[in-house]
Amino acid sequence: MGAALRVRLPELGVRMAERIRAEVESYADDALIPFASLRESCEGNADLLLGRFAQDAEADVGPAQRTGRLRAEQGVPLADTLHAYRVGFELLWSEMVEEARRHPEVTDAELVAGSSEIWALFGRYAEAVAAAYREASAELALQREARRSALAEALFTGALADRTTPWEAARQLGLPERGPYAVVAAAVPDPGQEPLPGIEAALRRSGVPSVWRLLPDQQIGLVSLGHRDAETVSLRALRRRRARVGVSPQFDSLRETPQALRFARLALAGPPGEGPGVTRFDDSPLAMLVAAAPAEASRLVEVALGPLLGLPEAERARLLQTLGHWFTAGGVAAGAAERLFVHPNTVRYRLRRIEELTGRPLTDPMALADLGAALYALQLLPS
């Protein structure tokens, strides 16, 4: 019976392919799965199955594994791939039953045994297809993630290969080709731990495309702000994570991504004394001045805070921390004391000490401006 059907393999391959195309939606697209390829696959699998019956040969799941890998590479859903196998097996079994009627020597008991065997083989083939499909899918996912990670790194560093433009990279990363964009930098609490878990998926659900990289000390992201509420949605999602986050100014050209990353990192550094929260670079024009003129800002630190910087480390850190918290608290000693877990009089004593050392009274607006700018510059500039 199996030998007789093997003579009709070309015909069976065509009929199987046609039946699968009619019943499985994904297989109807000739651009995705060419009919000739599908027919060849059907014919090869049918040949192996019939050989198993005709010659009692050992079942070979190799073609099933190759089909599983191929369908994963083509992007055919696994459920559709398994459905196609089921359709093929059903057609082949119906042909075997029809052929058996032409052979009186084939008993009903043999047909029942054959039915049991062919569906056991279907189980083996389906397992082989699914295992190969999942293995190939995992490999493809790793390749896509590696490619995505490399492209994101190239955008952040400005190191795109000559053959890849920023706009081509954007398309491959699922980002629009035009801005506005913003770069986000978040402090990593421990190496390998994301400070913004699930942020890309959360933004995508809100219609905001983005791409992210996890570095040893920071998680950085490039966010598209193309639709009207994108900035509001993004800031809300970032604040929910309870991490320390810096956000760059908006920019329109992807070629500005490295500079925007620098601004985001400056915003992340923020003024001393700040805890978790989102700091936008544009919220402090002073950050612009410090970033634009690091040499001059460094000189300002020396002039305004020089006497404090010459103190022993413990005292220097204590006074600078107090001054930072005092600025953050809006110049209210009680607010700074609450943040420092000390008495307000302790804060006032330290502030007087700062005035004595710097010669700049904290009641003088110009002196306050100098000290505040120097303190901010001290935090932002490299040591």
What does this structure look like?
The protein is α+β, with helices and mostly antiparallel strands and 383 residues long. The protein is 64% helix and 7% strand. It is built from 16 helices and 5 strands. The protein has helices at 2-6, 9-23, 35-55, 62-74, 78-100, 108-157, 166-173, 199-205, 230-240, 257-269, 285-292, 294-309, 313-328, 333-340, 344-358, 365-380, and strands spanning 181-187, 210-214, 218-224, 244-247, 277-280. Strand 2 and strand 3 (218-224) form a beta hairpin. The longest helix has 50 residues, at 108-157. The protein is rod-shaped, with a radius of gyration of 34 Å. The relative contact order is 0.06.
Helix count, per DSSP?
16
Q: Portion of residues in helices?
A: 55-70%
Low-confidence stretches: none
- Tell me the number of strands: 5
* Anisotropy-based shape: rod-shaped
What is the H/E string?
HHHHHHHEHEEHEHEHHHHHH
Q: What are the salient characteristics of this protein?
A:
64% helix; alpha+beta; single chain
Structural topology:
Layout: H1 2-6, H2 9-23, H3 35-55, H4 62-74, H5 78-100, H6 108-157, H7 166-173, E1 181-187, H8 199-205, E2 210-214, E3 218-224, H9 230-240, E4 244-247, H10 257-269, E5 277-280, H11 285-292, H12 294-309, H13 313-328, H14 333-340, H15 344-358, H16 365-380
Parallel strand pairs: 4-5
Antiparallel strand pairs: 1-3, 1-4, 2-3
Helix pairs in contact: 2-3, 2-5, 4-6, 5-6, 6-7, 11-16, 12-16, 13-14, 13-15, 14-15
Domain RsbT co-antagonist protein RsbRD N-terminal: 10-148
Organism: Streptomyces incarnatus
Domain PucR C-terminal helix-turn-helix: 319-376
